[in-house]
Amino acid sequence: MAVGVFDSGLGGLTVQQAIAARMPDLPLVYLGDNAHAPYGVRTADDIFGLTCRAVERLWDEGCDLVILACNTASAAALRRMQESWIPADKRVLGVFVPLIEALTERHWGDNSPPREVEVKHVALFATPATVASRAFQRELAFRAIGVDVEAQPCGGVVDAIEDGDEMLAEALVKSHVEALLRRMPHPQAAVLGCTHYPLMERAFQTALGSQVKVFSQAALVAESLEDYLNRRPQFRGAGKESKFLTTGNPARVSARATQFLRRPVTFESA
Question: Is the pLDDT of residue 148 over 90?
Fold first, then answer.
């Protein structure tokens, strides 16, 4: 009954942790493609190929349903995977869906025409590849009208987090927020469009000000996954063991993950 959780690096651990807290009896197999991180500066074709390879590895672990806990992969590869690559007995889900559900206050299954929503000015902070894909704006437009989205590519933030350099990450967050506020001085909401960014949520909130509502993904994804599995229990895979896999150096990734989550985490080679 295992579910796979994939990210290019360590950011998806925020999602894995939230799912584990919400569904403690659900085995989770986490795969970090640390050997090829970060994805945010790669081409769409490169991201597609790497993501497909990782998802197949999680299928081998008995995970019929895989969460792409990586906004870059969700933005650059998921639609193409769903249209032409994923077999009928498997599911691959992204992390934009729960965010947009929360932002527009409507469920993903609601296929009514786009309507006006309360939030009119949204700041999106994401990797350069996610921003370039415009996937967030496209999905939002299916459900809401009259929403102005200003996107800020946050170069360097993921690398600083992966390297454990919190001071640099905070300085970069402040710089990126200031750059966005010059173009959109009064956002009503901010979307942290990368699963690394919840670790910097306080820095984003401080730089934006308390009047801006910050939407972070981990808890929203966990809630949506629980609802999805309750409605489609057939996608609880055959896997029975929780584990952490990496394409990188297991000892190095384990040390970084332990620092990242502030609890012991042991990775195995994928």
Answer: yes
